[in-house]
Amino acid sequence: MHCPFCRHADSRVIDSRTSDDGLSIRRRRQCPECGGRFTTIETASLNVIKRSGVIEPFSREKVMSGVRKACQGRPVTEADLAVLAQTVEESIRQTGASQLDANEIGLAILKPLRALDEVAYLRFASVYQAFDSLEDFESAIEQLRLDHGRAAVGADAQAESAEA
Ligand SMILES: [Zn+2]
């Protein structure tokens, strides 16, 4: 990589650090020509194709703001949203995709959101999966009940007693 100070064609890595979430690497570099030091951050590219066709980098903040609306009045904290956005990013990166539709991000949000808060999940799903009738809500709620029945112990059961 070119030195940003003198444009020398090479630079030397003097320190390399992986971020806490493991999704990026920060490198301290030094130019052998002028001695200038600078930092580069390396991340795997992940882009989102919006409905309008515009391509933009994946943003955890956008995931959080989309979910935040569905969580209004629910016992969901900003820290919960941050963890959810990280989970979504990790699950998307695990697929190896470097570019995906905004709709696929919506789908990737559904599962962790459901584990976080079922009411917020229903609100979010109603928008993302375009529920247009009471029957759509009924079948989504029925599915939640069925899954609760299957997992009588564990996190789901705790969520139920917390709601009671
Ligand atoms: Zn230089």
Helix/strand layout:
Layout: E1 12-18, E2 24-30, E3 37-43, E4 47-49, E5 55-57, H1 60-70, H2 78-94, E6 99-101, H3 102-116, H4 118-128, H5 134-150, H6 155-163
Helix pairs in contact: 1-2, 2-3, 3-4
Bound molecules: zinc ion.
Function: Negatively regulates transcription of bacterial ribonucleotide reductase nrd genes and operons by binding to NrdR-boxes.
Cofactor: Zn(2+)
Domain ATP-cone: 46-136
Task: Tell me about this structure.
The protein has 164 residues and is an alpha+beta fold. The chain folds into 2 domains: 12-43, no CATH class; 47-131. It has 6 helices and 6 strands. A 3-stranded antiparallel sheet has the order 1-2-3, with no helix packed on it. Strands 5-4-6 form a 3-stranded mixed sheet. Helix 2 (78-94) packs across helix 3 (102-116) and helix 3 packs antiparallel against helix 4. The structure holds zinc ion (ZN). Zinc ion binds at residues 3, 5-6, 8, 31, 33-34, 36. The site of zinc ion (ZN) has 8 residues, from loops. Belongs to the NrdR family. Residues 46-136 form the ATP-cone domain.
Give a quick summary of the entry.
This protein is an alpha+beta fold.
Bound small-molecule species: zinc ion
Number of DSSP helices?
Answer: 6
Major β-sheet annotation: 3 strands, antiparallel
Q: List low-pLDDT spans.
A: none
Distance between the termini: 59 Å
% residues in beta strands: 15-25%
Number of strands: 6
Number of domains: 2
Strand-pairing-aware structural class: alpha+beta
Portion in helices: 40-55%
Q: Name the assembly state.
A: single chain
Shape: elongated
Order of adjacent strands in the largest pleated sheet: 1-2-3
Helix and strand succession? EEEEEHHEHHHH
Average per-residue pLDDT, rounded, comes to: 88
Q: How big is the Rg?
A: 21 Å
InterPro entries: ATP-cone_dom, NrdR-like_N, RNR_NrdR-like
Family: Belongs to the NrdR family.
Zinc finger (unnamed): 3-34
GO molecular function: ATP binding; DNA binding; zinc ion binding
